[in-house]
Every structure is written in C-alpha cells, then in structure tokens.
Predict the 3D structure of the following.
Amino acid sequence: MDRARFWQLDVSDNNAVQRTMAAAEAYFGRIDILINSAGINADNPSAQGLSIKQWEKAMQANVHGSILCSKHVIPAMARAGGGSIVNVLSLCGMDGERQEAAEHVAKAALRMANMNAIRYAAHNIRVNSIYPGMVRPPALAAAKRKQGDVPGVRRIALAWHTSG
C-alpha cells in the first residue's frame, strides 16, 4: 500500500480518539499497528511541587491517551484478524530519576498496559512495550534550557546508559 495520512489528535479526548481510529480504519480498510508514543511532562521536577492541574494534564496525555488509543483500536484490529500495539515507555518508568515525577509515574503505570498482551493474544493482537533509552526530544531540551541546565541532558543520558 502506498498511501499515508495524518490526523492531528488530542489523545486525552475520548471522542476524538474514537473518531480518529474509525477514520483511519475507514481510510485504510484496516488498522495493523498502533504506536502509543504521545506524552508530555508536567514541567515540574518534584511531586511536592506539582499542582493538581499539572498532574492531571500529564496523566491525561501520558496514561489515559495510550489507554484510549488502545481501547479504540483493538476492535479494528480484531476485525482485521490481528495487529500490534507498541507502548513507547521511558527508562524513568523502570528506575526513575529525580526529575519530572508525573512523567515517571505515568510511564510506570503504562507498564500495566501489558496485561492487554494476555487478554488479546487470542485475537492475534500483540502488545509490547519498548524502552528506547535516552533521546533528546525537543520537550526535554526545552525543559533543560529553561532550567539553565543544557549539559544536564548528557549527564542524565550517560547515567542511564552506564548504570547497571
């Protein structure tokens, strides 16, 4: 198939996710893969410093978004005879570090999404999580610039990838 299509989507909006998954299935005739990689940080380094609004915003995008996308894609995958859901998580969800408490909790919560692997295996739907390691996404670079700690990105990456 040589078609591609882009849909802009707020993954925390249940109705928008449902409409988008239906539109994708209608356009392509089936959905074979979902990559849950959307996420935001709460722009605050500590749980004590988080406002409830920051916490809820991070949970809506990082946890609810992945769950909603999975929820609304599974019926399409079942109709297609199977598919694959890949949850892109963070090393922070396994080990954590001193920054961004909400993101770390969210990514750890998504580890529980692997229960779908057992539940939907009978429908030939695979669910996996990957931990791609440290990358330098624009949001992380912007947060470090705001903190005045651009070299901190390298220190964090080095610590994650050399600890064992």
Summary: Residues 25 and 50 are 38 Å apart (CA to CA).
